[in-house]
Amino acid sequence: MYTLSELKEEYYSICNSLEFGVKGIVAFDSGVAGPCVGVTMMTHGNEPSGLAALRHFRASDMIRKLQKGKVIFVLNNVAAAEKYFAALDIVGQTEGARVRLSARFLDVNMNRLPADMPERVNDSRYEIIRSRELLPVWKRFNIGLDIHTTISITEPMIIAIGNVSNDLYRGFPADIVIRNIENVQTGKPASAFYGQPNTVSVLGVEAGTHEDPRSCNIAITLVKSLLQNLGMIQGEGLPELELRKEYNISGSVFFPNASYRLVKKFTPFEFVEAGSIIAEGDGEPIRVATVCHIILPRPGIEATGPLNDEVMFLSSPVKTVES
User: Fold this and answer.
1) How far apart are the C-alpha atoms of 111 and 116, rounded to whole Å?
2) Residue 24 and residue 174: Cα distance in Å, rounded?
3) What's the Cα-to-Cα distance from 123 to each of 22, 126, 131, rounded to whole Å?
4) Which of 43, 130, 165, 173 has the fewest C-beta atoms lying within 10 Å of its C-beta?
5) Right CATH number for 4-239 from 3.40.630.10, 1.10.260.40, 2.120.10.30, 2.30.180.10?
6) Rounded distance, CA 296 to CA 313, Å?
């Protein structure tokens, strides 16, 4: 599958593309009425796999296969992506990897945007400026697909934003669905600003780990499956109903101060009994109130980001659902 060097080429290609008066966008229009699908990538600068979907879309001449509607590929965080790909030229594997990992964002996590972002005319932070620039493009989406990856080794997972129909993610190479995270997390994800209220359907997908080539394969399959499900490209019909594990986010965990540490390294989706202590520090221990699963834990036991970022999310007991 695509190398980081090839993804870098695709990065510079989309950076030089101008659509709707905004750089970092490539649009494909069938010329036939239909859905407007927005595929967003590198919302975090150290998550390059979404570029593989765009490269495949071009290479396979998918534009000729579009039967209706349009597809808009958007590189959300251009400046953070620039920092990431520039680090490929750093001499020394360890230092290069460190800089790439740090290229998540410049000033503001684009998945933790302020709710009033559209009104922040005088906010000079890069991600606010970029989000306001992209807002008119984001609002065009009827369907949004935001492709992410994680630092931890975990199974691919679908993040369903709002009341998303299961039919949209038929054939997605992910057995796990996360719901309600947008109502629990601090701030707003960029995808919360996609489309028009109450009419847009948005899927976020964690496609694997950041630089695992398999994440590129998954990103490609996500786009193809979504377009087939919408009848925008020819497919083999909807696959049979699939069984997926669904986790409904019910809470989150923050460290009160920098002294806190998790009591152990938790694994993703680990089941925890009610009353269990999960973190300790200079203050009261942190306990879970009810039985739950650990969702998107940070690697290790220490805080690796700002104290106002979640250390992990908590979910209600898992359910198996048909989708």
Assistant:
1) 14
2) 28
3) 19, 9, 11
4) 165
5) 3.40.630.10
6) 6
- Which pTM was predicted? 0.91
Which tens digits make up the pLDDT trace of 204-241? Answer: 999 988 888 899 999 999 999 999 999 999 876 555 66
Task: Provide CB contacts within 8 A for 60, sequence distance 6+.
Answer: none
Write the single-letter amino acid at 29.
D
Helices (H), the chain: 4-15, 50-59, 62-65, 78-86, 93-101, 126-138, 213-229
- Please name the residue that has the structure tokens 């980081």: 4
Q: Where are the domains of the chain?
A: 4-239, 249-322
Radius of gyration, CA atoms only, the chain: 20
Distance of CA 172 to the CA centre of its chain: 15
Mean pLDDT of the chain: 92
Please list, in sequence order, all residues whose beta carbon lies within 8 angstroms of the beta carbon of residue 197, skipping any fewer than 6 positions away.
Answer: none
Q: How sure is the predictor about 62, in pLDDT bands with cuts at 50, 70 and 90?
A: confident
